[in-house]
C-alpha cells in the first residue's frame, strides 16, 4: 500500500498543482503537510526576521483556505514545526511515508533542505514538479542565462511555450492516513494556528480569514481577484498606470498570490491570453506578460546562480563600494531619511506590507547610492516586510539595483527628485504617508562634526 505525503511550500492551492496531482495519482493513502519554521521569526537574517506580521497574517489566511478545501475532500492539513528538513524527516519516519511530493525549489536553502531529506531516506521516492513557474526545465536553453533581455527575446522567439495547466484532480482522492490528526475538525486547525501565533509572538488570526489589508490570502481570494481584474478591463491601461505609487487599480496586484502560490503564473498567463483573444491585445496586455517573464527570469537565474545570489559581490567582477552604517540603515527602515518620497514609501511598506514596483526601485536605489549601504541588508528588510516576498524576485532585483546581478550594464540609479516630479508632483502620496513629517539629516555628528 503506497503511503504518500505532499509537502506544500510556495504552492498553497489545489488547482494547477502538478506535484499534488502526481502524488494523488500514485498514492493509496495520503497526508498533506506544511512546515512552520520558528527561525523565520527570529533576527537571524542580517539582524532581520524572515517574516513579519503582515505576511504571517496572509500566510495564515492562505493555510486556513487550503485546509477548508482539503477538509471538503475528507482530509486536513498537518502543520509541522521546526527546521524544514528535520520536521519533514521526522514525519516520514513516524508515518512510514514511502513517497514524498513537493514542488521543485529554486531557493538555495530550500534545495539544501530537500537534499538533506533525501540523504536521510534513501528508499524514499521523491516526486517533484514545476509548480511555481511558467516553464519547465526542458524549456530553458542550457548555458548561462545572461540578461533579462536575452532571456525574454529567446522565449518570445520560441513563442513562449507555456506548459498547459494541469488536468482536473482524480476523483475520489486517496484515503487519509489513519489517526484522528488526519481528520480533525477545521476549527481545531484554526486553534492550532492561534497557538503558534502566540509561540512565535505574532498577531492572532481570526476564523474568517479576513484581513485589514486589501489583500486576503487563499486560493479562493486569488481566483476572485483574477476574475475581477480582467472583467473590469483594467488590463487595457496597465502600461499607463503601472508606475503609480498608491492606487489599488493601477497594477495587477497578483504578486502576493503568486509569491505564496495561491495562484500559478500559468493560470494568470492563460487568463491573459484569453482576454487578448476576446478583447484584443495592446501594449498594456503585452506588458502584463512582460512582467510575468521578469518574474520567471529571476526564478531560473536563482536556480542557476545558487548561493551567489546572496553574496555581496554576486556576479560582479568587483565588490560594490558600499558598507554598513547602522544609523543610516535604521533611518531608512523607519522612513526617517532626508528624502520625503523614500520616507513615504517606507511608511507604506511598514504599515501594509505593500510597496509599488516603482517605489521599490526608488528606495533600493537610495539605499545603495545615496546611503552607500550593503544591499544585502536592504534585501533582508524587504524579505521581512513584504507581503509578496519571493526569494528569487527579491534578491534578484536587489542585485540588479546594486549592480552585482547578471545584467552587464551595472547598477541602477534613480534620481529621487526627478522621480518625485514624475510620480508625485503634487505631493499627494508624500502627504498621505507622512514623508515630510520624519525628515532628518543623514548622519548624527558630535561637537567636532564627526559621525556618531
How would you explain this protein's 3D organization?
The chain is α/β, with parallel strands linked by helices. It has 3 domains: 1-131, Rossmann fold (3-Layer(aba) Sandwich), CATH 3.40.50; 220-309, Serine Threonine Protein Phosphatase 5, Tetratricopeptide repeat (Alpha Horseshoe); 326-432, DNA Cyclobutane Dipyrimidine Photolyase, subunit A, domain 3 (Orthogonal Bundle). Helices cover 47% and strands 7% of the residues. It has helices at 18-26, 53-72, 84-95, 108-120, 148-157, 186-199, 219-231, 238-241, 255-260, 265-279, 283-305, 326-334, 340-352, 357-370, 375-385, 391-402, 416-423, 428-432, and strands at residues 3-7, 29-36, 77-81, 99-103, 125-129, 175-176. Strands 1, 2, 3, 4, 5 and 6 form a 6-stranded parallel beta sheet that branches. Helix 2 packs antiparallel against helix 6, helix 11 (283-305) crosses helix 16 (391-402) and helix 15 runs antiparallel to helix 16. The longest helix is centred in the middle third of the chain and has 23 residues, at 283-305. Residues 207-212 have low confidence and may be disordered.
Amino acid at each position: 500500500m503506497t503511503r504518500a505525503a505532499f509537502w506544500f511550500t510556495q504552492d498553497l492551492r489545489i488547482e494547477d498543482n502538478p506535484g499534488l496531482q502526481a502524488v494523488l495519482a500514485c498514492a493509496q493513502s495520503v497526508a498533506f503537510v506544511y512546515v512552520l519554521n520558528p527561525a523565520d521569526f527570529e533576527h537571524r537574517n542580517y539582524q532581520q526576521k524572515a517574516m513579519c506580521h503582515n505576511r504571517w497574517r496572509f500566510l495564515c489566511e492562505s493555510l486556513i483556505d487550503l485546509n477548508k478545501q482539503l477538509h471538503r475532500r475528507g482530509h486536513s492539513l498537518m502543520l509541522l514545526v521546526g527546521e524544514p528538513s528535520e520536521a519533514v524527516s521526522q514525519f516520514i519516519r513516524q508515518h512510514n511515508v514511502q513517497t514524498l511530493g513537493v514542488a521543485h525549489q529554486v531557493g538555495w536553502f530550500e534545495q539544501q533542505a530537500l537534499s538533506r531529506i533525501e540523504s536521510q531516506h534513501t528508499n524514499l521516492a521523491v516526486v517533484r514538479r514545476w509548480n511555481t513557474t511558467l516553464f519547465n526545465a526542458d524549456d530553458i536553453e542550457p548555458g548561462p542565462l545572461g540578461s533579462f533581455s536575452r532571456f525574454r527575446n529567446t522565449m518570445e522567439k520560441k513563442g513562449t511555450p507555456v506548459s498547459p495547466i494541469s488536468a482536473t484532480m482524480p476523483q475520489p482522492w486517496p484515503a487519509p492516513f489513519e489517526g484522528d490528526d488526519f481528520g480533525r475538525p477545521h476549527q481545531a486547525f484554526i486553534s492550532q494556528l492561534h497557538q503558534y501565533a502566540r509561540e512565535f509572538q505574532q498577531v492572532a488570526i481570526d476564523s474568517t480569514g479576513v484581513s485589514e489589508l486589501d489583500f486576503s490570502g487563499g486560493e479562493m481570494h486569488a481566483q476572485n481577484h483574477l476574475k475581477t481584474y480582467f472583467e473590469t478591463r483594467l488590463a487595457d491601461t496597465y502600461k499607463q498606470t503601472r508606475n503609480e505609487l498608491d492606487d489599488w487599480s493601477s497594477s495587477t496586484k497578483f504578486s502576493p498570490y503568486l509569491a505564496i502560490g495561491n495562484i500559478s503564473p500559468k493560470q494568470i498567463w492563460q487568463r491573459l491570453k484569453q482576454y487578448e483573444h476576446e478583447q484584443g491585445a495592446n501594449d498594456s496586455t503585452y506588458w502584463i506578460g512582460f512582467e510575468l517573464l521578469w518574474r520567471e527570469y529571476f526564478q531560473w537565474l536563482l536556480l542557476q546562480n545558487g548561493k551567489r545570489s546572496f553574496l555581496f559581490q554576486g556576479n560582479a567582477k568587483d565588490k560594490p563600494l558600499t558598507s554598513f552604517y547602522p544609523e543610516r540603515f535604521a533611518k531608512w527602515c523607519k522612513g526617517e531619511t532626508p528624502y520625503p518620497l523614500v520616507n513615504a514609501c517606507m511608511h507604506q511598506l511598514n504599515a501594509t506590507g505593500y510597496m509599488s514596483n516603482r517605489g521599490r526601485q526608488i528606495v533600493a536605489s537610495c539605499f545603495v547610492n545615496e546611503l552607500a549601504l550593503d544591499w544585502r541588508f536592504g534585501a533582508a528588510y524587504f524579505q521581512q516586510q513584504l507581503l509578496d516576498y519571493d526569494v528569487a524576485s527579491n534578491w534578484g532585483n536587489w542585485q540588479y539595483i546594486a549592480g552585482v546581478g547578471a545584467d552587464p550594464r551595472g547598477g541602477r540609479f534613480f534620481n529621487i527628485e526627478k522621480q518625485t516630479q514624475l510620480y508625485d508632483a503634487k505631493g499627494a502620496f508624500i502627504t498621505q504617508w507622512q514623508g515630510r513629517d520624519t525628515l532628518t539629516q543623514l548622519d548624527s555628528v558630535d561637537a567636532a562634526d564627526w559621525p556618531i
